[in-house]
Every structure is written in C-alpha cells, then in structure tokens.
Specification:
This protein is an alpha/beta fold. The chain is 36% helix and 24% strand. It has a six-stranded mixed beta sheet with strand order 6-7-8-3-9-10, sandwiched between helices. The protein has a four-stranded antiparallel beta sheet with strand order 2-1-4-5, with helices on one face. Strand 7, helix 6 (184-199) and strand 8 form a beta-alpha-beta unit.
Length: 304
C-alpha cells in the first residue's frame, strides 16, 4: 500500500496525477502525470495560459473533482481514493476556497454570508457569530457587517469571500483568480490579506495568469499542455502591505487638488472613501484578531 511522504511539513503531495475528459468521442488529456509537493506555510502561485491544466489541477486539489489516475495526499489523507461524502468533509473542514466570482448570497448580509460554511459544522450559533465577526474584522470589514453585496464594492465583496473561507479554520487556502475581476489597487489589497494569512502560517495556493500577481507568492509553478514546465522560488516577492502603506503616504502628503496617487506604473484610481477603506484594511492586517489566531489548533486538526 502506498504511504504518504514521511515529511510531516508536507501538506500537499501529488504523484503522477492525470485527468482525462471525454468530449463526445474525443479524449482530452487535461493533466499528463503531474507530481508536486507543497510544504506547510508556503505561498505558491500556479500559472499557465488558458488550457494549460492549471484550473483542472486546482479543482483536484480542492476535491471538486477526482483524478483519472495518480495519487493526491492532503496531510495524511489519500484524498484521491475517498468517497464523495469523505471528500465533502475534507472540503468543508480543511480547505478554504476563494473564487474569482465571489459567489455571495445577494440577499444576505456580509455576516450571514460568512456564517454559511459553519451551518453544518455543529458549532453553537453564538460561536458562529463570533467567528464570522472576527473574520470580517480581519479583512477590514468590521464596520460593514450588515451590508449586503449590492452595498459593497467588488474588492469588499472579495474580502467577504475571504472571510467566509477562514471561518472553519482551514489548513489550506485555494484562491482561483481572486483578483481577476478587480482593478489594480483593489488587487493589491486582496494580496495583502493573502500574504498576511500566509505570514501567520496558512498554506496558500493561488491560480493566476497575471505575472505581477504571481510575484507576491514565494514560489511559482507553471503549467503548459497538462504538465509542469517550471517550478522555482521567487527571489524577492512583492510586499502588498508595503505598497499600500506607500500609497497611503502619498495620499496623505499630496496637495488637495493633486492627481490621484500612482502605484508602480499604473494609476491607483480611488476616492477619499477608497482611501478610508484601504486604511481600515491596513489596520486590520497589522493587528489580526486573536479569534482566528490559533494556528496550533489548525495544525492539530490537520495531523493524520
């Protein structure tokens, strides 16, 4: 019987992973024998053009689909061999998902949206409320608990989605093009949150086709035609928090009628309300609440 890696810091291990789809009478080999390990606490960007296999790989990591062949170990569990009910438990308990499209309930408040993953967790209602409030505070939305999605900007909606991904205290965050629908400044805000989570010990796997976004990660893995063509560390990852702090300094020091601040080579388009929102986010990522800070508990839950 195959056994997982003896390295207890390995959170993801795949060996010879394949995925073949049948479209009519055509067999499409989306993945062609992928082998990869991701260690606990890494921030990995999965890159590649459309059709490269990166989204298929992410779906397999997230237990949203099953491989055609090969093995996938998550912690101590051989998830490629689990039943549908066992996979659902893994998705709910160990993995936090962040999608490009937010996937929020339009009639529910931010607080209620964040509470949704805990419905089947067995937690008391008071604990669900406490965790949801703490998660929203962590992403800089403590003052918007009762706003509905239509009352929030795109970036704020994505931050609600990140809070929702955190409330069950997962050991792994999977982010599929989380900045794809956002402008430059808002994208940096999202990356600041993901880097903060990673700095606190969370393993983050990010799918993106944008090189500038991938440069916030510690490691970049590139797919093409269903195989990995490169896997290398990022020598000097960008710091989203530093970039936002620099932006806010420019805003504070700029004359009243000066053009809006510039971040890198692109305009950091925003209003005074945007600046207040960014300032609230920076304060939140600098001092995350203790309610979501029990990383030792996360590690114990993830242990085989």
């Amino acid at each position: 019987m195959t056994t997982p890696s003896t390295n207890t810091s390995t959170v993801i291990r795949v060996r010879d992973l394949t995925k073949t789809y049948l479209l009519g009478q055509t067999r499409v080999r989306a993945l062609r024998g992928v082998s990869l390990e991701i260690q606990r606490g890494e921030f990995v960007a999965i890159m590649g053009p459309s059709g490269s296999g990166k989204s298929t790989f992410m779906n397999l990591l997230g237990c949203l689909d099953r491989p055609s062949g090969g093995e996938y170990w998550l912690g101590g569990a051989l998830v490629s061999k689990l039943t549908p009910d066992q996979l659902a438990d893994i998705r709910n308990r160990r993995i936090g998902f962040i999608f490009q499209g937010f996937n929020l309930m339009g009639r529910a408040t931010a607080l209620k949206n964040v509470e949704i993953p805990m419905i089947y967790s067995g937690l008391q209602v008071a604990e669900q409320d406490r965790r949801a409030r703490a998660a929203l505070q962590m992403v800089g939305l403590g003052s918007r608990l009762h706003h509905k999605p239509a009352q929030l900007s795109g970036g704020q909606q994505q931050r609600v989605a990140i809070a929702r991904a955190l409330v069950n205290r997962p050991s792994l965050i999977l982010a599929d093009e989380p900045t794809g629908n956002l402008d430059t400044r808002t994208s940096v805000e999202i990356m600041a949150i993901l880097q903060t989570l990673n700095a606190r010990g969370m393993t983050v796997v990010l799918v993106t086709h944008e090189t500038d976004i991938a440069n916030y990660a510690q490691r970049q893995v590139t797919f093409r035609d269903g195989v990995i063509i490169s896997d290398h560390p990022v020598a000097d990852p960008r710091s989203a928090r530093v970039e936002l702090e620099q932006l806010m300094k420019q805003v504070v020091n700029a004359p009243a009628n000066a053009p809006r601040a510039v971040m890198g080579a692109q305009p950091a388009s925003g209003t005074p309300a945007d600046d207040e929102d960014t300032a609230e986010l920076l304060s939140a990522v600098a001092t995350p609440p203790r309610a979501l800070d029990d990383l030792e508990a996360i590690r114990r839950e993830d242990a085989p």
